[in-house]
Amino acid sequence: xxxxxxxxxxxxxxxxxxxxxxxxxxxxxxxxxxxxxxxxxxxxxxxxxxxxxxxxxxxxxxxxxxxxxxxxxxxxxxxxxxxxxxxxxxxxxxxxxxxxxxxxxxxxxxxxxxxxxxxxxxxxxxxxxxxxxxxxxxxxxxxxxxxxxxxxxxxxxxxxxxxxxxxxxxxxxxxxxxxxxx
Length: 182
Description:
CATH class: Alpha Beta
Largest sheet: 6 strands, mixed
Helix content: 25-40%
Number of helices: 6
Oligomer: single chain
Keywords: Molybdenum cofactor biosynthesis
CATH superfamily: MoaB/Mog-like domain
Shape: globular
Order of helices and strands: EEHEHEHEHEEHEH
Distance between the termini: 23 Å
Mean pLDDT: 91
Pathway: Cofactor biosynthesis; molybdopterin biosynthesis
GO biological process, one term: Mo-molybdopterin cofactor biosynthetic process
Number of domains: 1
Organism: Amphritea japonica ATCC BAA-1530
CATH topology: Molybdenum Cofactor Biosythetic Enzyme, Chain A
Structural class: alpha/beta
Pfam families: MoCF_biosynth
CATH architecture: 3-Layer(aba) Sandwich
């Protein structure tokens, strides 16, 4: 569990949510509903929510639009991270990253191993930073979304979390908490 620093204020972030699916609608998007509830319960704001089919260029276009908007600091993407021919989320988004958050996929798979065993090896979750916007992908199940949010992403989107968080990367007025230590 992380450490929270009491004298730092919580900074609500604007989060866009993309569900990657050829079959889901807003009425059947339980993974998107899970993430929306999690982010709002944590005090963040939903900036936009869309559902798009598993198409590299359509996914890239939606996320490219969001990372150019000043009112979007974080993009959450659920679905399309497996190994089927239609799972293209990592391929769609990696070219957009200025920096890859290598530890995200590693940590997600480690945590989900306790829940689903070796099936976690089939998750190709990736994360990165593009144009000062954080992008996190996760599998398309509500359980995987909950694991990603509750055990990794939520703390990293809280300026009070120490020793490090990603808020300073997306909000220019938040001072750095992860500089060199004396």
